[in-house]
Amino acid sequence: MEVISNIFEALNNQLLKMNWLSELVRKLVEDVFGLSIKERLGGSIHFFIYDTIKIFILLSVLILIISYIQSYFPPERTKKILGNIKGIKGNILGALLGTITPFCSCSSIPLFIGFTSAGLPIGITFSFLISSPLVDLASFLLLMSFFGAKIATAYVIVGLILAVIGGTIIDKLKLEKYVEGYVKEIENVDAEIIELTREERISYAKDQVSQIVKKVWLYVFIGVGIGAAIHNWIPQSIIENSIGINNPFSVLIATLVGIPMYADIFGTLPIAEALFNKGVGIGTVLSFMMAVTALSLPSIIMLSKVVKPKLLGIFVAIVAVGIMIIGYLFNAFGYLLI
To answer: Which positions, given as ranges, span the membrane (predicted)?
Structure first.
């Protein structure tokens, strides 16, 4: 068993954490630039180059794999699958199907509109909407590369639980009347599901890589830049006093700070890594990430065009409270996962 564990750890270090890349960048910074990575400037340059290259490698590979899988679940097929299951099982399936959809909440909203116009229960569509930006194979593997398998697994589980509970609450509150009328009136045409060849699926996956990289590259650079600044230039005492583990309001602050931002898992991870390395609680870090990805201001604005203020407010409140509960639980028991 120990041998298997050692093999897994070695693979994780080289394939996900990319220790080999960190060493190459260290040599570049120290031997070529003549800077020590133990000093602020050298450490910042090392952090920026290493994290940027690592994220783009993982980004490209993971999107390619996930998009290939996603090609088997076009919106028409997803609607048919969800339309046949009701109740809590439907919420669970909606949350699970959300894990194989695009990476940001904004791109999930058009699918949400399609599901609503197709007559799917509102609770199922919201379970899908919550889960889609929060939980996917990419977030799992990226979190594993930064924080380890235990935290990554726990994150996926609580993200799915939040999606299921959030959708169930909205369903029980009978809030269908707060969906804008024009959404329900959109003519629902069941397009024929076209079976793609393997070559067409590969081509689709490559196109998705190109499109998503074009959308997120700026946020990755910004996120890594902020992470480098936090990691090397902001004194640890300032971070500990503002959102450190001893501040009882740290999770609340991280959630409220994360909501107005717009990024995805790729842009928030470098910031989360830097905060974690500065002693911020893992629950506070995850609350920040979840707030940015699930409740970004642009996605809320888009959603406000398809649901009425009461439903929008209930959705934001449920997700925000759920994120904060998750954050405090991780802060209390996260030591078991590290």
So the answer is: 47-69, 90-113, 119-144, 151-170, 216-234, 246-263, 283-304, 311-337
